[in-house]
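Annex B. Sample input.
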Amino acid sequence: MVTPSLRERRRAAATREILDAAELHIAEHGPAALSLRAIARSLQMTVQALYHYFPSRDALVTALVTKAYDDLADAVQAAVDSAEDGSDLPRLVVAAEGYRRWAIARPEHFQLLYGTPLRDYAAPAEGTTTQATRRMSAIFERELFAGYSAEQLAAAEAPVLSPALREHLEQLPHFGGGRLPPAATALFLSAWGHLHGLVVLEVFGHTSFLGEHQAEIFRVAMRNLLEDIRRRIPGDRT
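Annex B, continued. Sample output.
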């Protein structure tokens, strides 16, 4: 292993400090208020000096989005890893609850990922943000379809797909153990929409009328979602 030079270590430390300051700024003011000038001011450095590390606001936003996705994926994986052997709580539900907890604890960072898009910002195609989202998707794909063969997934009961949609789904990249057949991809996207939609509603305060029962409602919904999908896949899991 090559030891980083002193200059490289200093640059890495400064980059981490800038990202930490930007995350704090987002937590205090929200993603829309993010600016290089504000970050530089908080670190008592000039904007020109900050440009040595992040040449544009978009570069900083990309780094922040990538880090947020990685942190979220870490939280989901940690939840799965901590699942007790023999527990009657399915690992997919455990993963979903890890996702929910992260989002509730960091609403501003969740908003950076899934809220109103920042004006004039577009993530680089096939860049670090894409890689980070695929890592998280792989966790949910694995836990949703663990134990099923490719033949079982291909025979899953799903809404009738048009030829055009089926062809499009066949071309989508997948992130688990292998390429999903269109029927399974459709089920995965439906499950993801259900899971993510409930979290969005809670993070943005639309289910506050449920009070302390929000966690229970979410768990019941995730159990029902998983049971419904398993009913749609023929045969038993291995």
